[in-house]
Amino acid sequence: MIKRRQAITLGAGLLAAKALNLAAEIDTSHNLPVIERAIPSTGETIPVIGMGTSRTFDTPNDPQALAQLTDVMQAFFSAGGTVIDSSPMYGNAEARVGDVLRAMAQRPTVFAATKVWTTGKDEGISQMQQSEERMAVTPFDLIAIHNLQDWRTHVATLKDWKEQGKVRYIGITTSHGRDHEDFLQVMAEEPLDFVQFSYNIEDRVAEDRLLPLAQDRGIATMINRPFQRGSLFARTRGKNLPPLAADLQCASWGQFFLKFILAHPAVTNIIPATSKLHHMQDNMMANFGAVPDAEQREEMLRVFKAFS
User: Fold this and answer.
1) The domain containing residue 232 runs over which residues?
2) Which residue in 104, 109, 232, 275 is deepest, having the highest Cβ count within 10 Å?
3) Within a domain: residue 160?
4) In a domain, 100, yes or no
5) pTM, to two decimals
6) CA separation (Å) from 256 to 6, 148, 216?
7) In a domain, 9, yes or no
């Protein structure tokens, strides 16, 4: 079985051959098209698998750390990724992204997203300007209000910035699934382009109201914690992928979990975070191939529940 942390043979027979052939095909030639979804407010399309930076990019500014993160980001871009999400809340993450981008001989296409996470208008403006310097991005593609922090103040600033061309898209986030009532109110009342929240095969609370409202309001969704901070892999450790995985062109449980999320029609983009090259390569394989239909999605859920 190809596991998250160790690439070994997948089961036996046809499933193993299909999974390994797919891994080689995507890793070497990328001859499968990148899966993209449209941002409802404009119709612009972005790859479905993005890159988060929470915890994973909060590293020292030293050659070893920068070399590791450079390899991770190069793998991300090589597999068609563009969406990078960060926040001032994530320590050094914004600065490390900027360090790597500045050092690249040829700057790749980046859909750069960050957040404002402070109180007060002037403080918010100062923080967003600092984020531009740290991430080497002007203007940002997306700035979201992190965990609804002083959201009324910042949404006014962001709407003004959008009109001036200082940011392309605006949104709000919640990183812990909390404050859903306030979150839903802002979604219903404000002209948002994006919302970000947690959603995965285990934590499906967002299916009840968040995802339907985003779809109804024409708001793009960015999904954090797709692996439930890694706990999903504990559930499937030592378990073979089901035969369905080969049909979905999934060569690992990580890809299986990402494809489950993608199967929801209201999902626009997913931002798994990693600082490990092999995990990034594995994640990005979900950027290609089949997307489960409704029946396959139910089967994926049934398989996962059987492990509980």
Assistant:
1) 44-239+256-293
2) 232
3) yes
4) yes
5) 0.89
6) 16, 31, 27
7) no
Q: How far apart are CA 66 and CA 64, in angstroms?
A: 5
Q: Is residue 15 part of a domain?
A: no
Total residues found in the chain within this entry: 308
Strand-pairing partners, residue 170, are 143
Q: If we measure between CA atoms, which residue out of 301, 286, 274 comes closest to residue 5?
A: 274
SS3 228: helix
More confident residue, 3 or 301: 301
Q: What angle do CA 264, 295, 44 make, to 5 degrees?
A: 30
CB atoms within 10 A of CB 259: 26
Cβ-in-10-Å burial (0-12, 13-18, 19+) of 276 comes to middle
Tens digits of residue pLDDT in 150-182? 999 999 999 999 999 999 999 999 876 566 889
pLDDT digits (tens, 9 = 90+) for 65-109: 999 999 999 999 999 999 999 999 999 999 999 999 999 999 999
- Judged against a pLDDT cut of 80, whether residue 62 lies above it is answered with yes
